[in-house]
Give the backbone structure.
Amino acid sequence: MLTKKQWLRKKRKKKYFMLFTITSLTLFILLMVLLMSVSVLKDMNITKFSLINFTRSANPIAKPEIMEMFLTPNDYSRPQTPLKKVNSIVVHYTANPKTGAEANRNYFENLRISKETSASSHFVIGLKGEIIQCIPLDEISFASNNRNEDTISIECCHPDETGKFNDSTYGSLIKLLAWLCKEYNLDRDDIIRHYDVNGKLCPLYYVEHEDAWEMLKNDVMAYIDENAAKDK
Ligand SMILES: [Zn+2]
């Protein structure tokens, strides 16, 4: 038999035990709800992220054939600085008549040894229309002075001193520009010349012939219209 005192103590103990259990259970449930909402939020973010990816990958323009011949990372031509945003695409000419895409790519590669200057380009388009990529698109190139940080660069080979691109080079340039415009959601005015960055006479022919430059941009837009429409 319990004395009244013992009985009261037992009752109090039971009360505390119940209180402890209820509090623990409540805390546990709250924790679970919190964890679940975090995971739901995470899922939502993942969905959003894949939606962005889906939109990005829905480029209506086919990627042209590109040979990846990335430069060896080095301070003179491939510093591996992240390219965080792309606001424009800059067109250049090599200023070295008759040289091909691979020769120009190798010139950039050799700068890590010769150290004579800093120069490179994301792409070089050769005289047969071949496209060589020297630098991944999430890294900057050394081509466009103070616009290296937010542009993609394309060097074009040319057969003579005038700097005019031949039909093969021109054709590949149009395709590459069209694809890049769609890839980065850029427009006609986002295609610029090195000349538009700092007044350098590059690409020479398209600085001296404003009409040819306007026509080049028109050709890119026409190519996009034609090929984006094909899918519909
Ligand atoms: Zn240039």
In short: The chain is about 50% helix and 10% strand.
